Amino acid sequence: MTAGLSGQQVTGPGGLAWVPALTRTDLLAPPVAAALEAWGETAGEAAQQVLVAEIDPQLADTAALVEATGAPASIMANCVVVAGRRGEVERIAGCVVLATTRADVNGLVRKRLDARKASFLDHDRAVAGSGMEFGGITPVGLPAEWQVFVDAAVLDVDVAVIGSGVRRSKIALPGALLGQLPGVEVVEGLGVPLPSSS
What we know:
By secondary structure, the chain is α+β, with helices and mostly antiparallel strands. The protein has five helices and twelve strands. 24% of the residues lie in helices and 29% in strands. It starts with 9 loop residues before the first strand and ends in a 5-residue tail after the last strand. Mean pLDDT is 90; it is low at 1-6.
């Protein structure tokens, strides 16, 4: 994947055409592009490792992308937005877990938010609050007042594929870099295994 950092296209996960994200900010939601550019100013080399690939918007959902491209689900990461409430106080967090797991919303996330009750944030509020498209929400560029939790397991993935803020592209980066994003808190056990289909 590093072969493309000088600007040329590389073939990466799923056989998609990946290019440095900072050279194709038109494929990113505005908050994502702004966050990457700001990150590039403070952490230069790290931001250069973030790649973007254009996809059919119908493949934005992880299962569809895996089926269409053959990319392993084990490198796909999902970002879900959770709201926790205690009394009149509401806290919101973006939670990043591998696609082979689900976020432990009512356990770890609820406790981290110091909430009595936690649930997925309403679709319209998630879109409006993040400035991103539903199905493309990513931890890069989330509002500063939101917390961001990343499952420790994501950091072990050589190249993680995640949303770009829009449904027509994906970004890829070393999993460890997700733990270095501004404001991120790495949480052990955030993702719990999906129920077995057997």
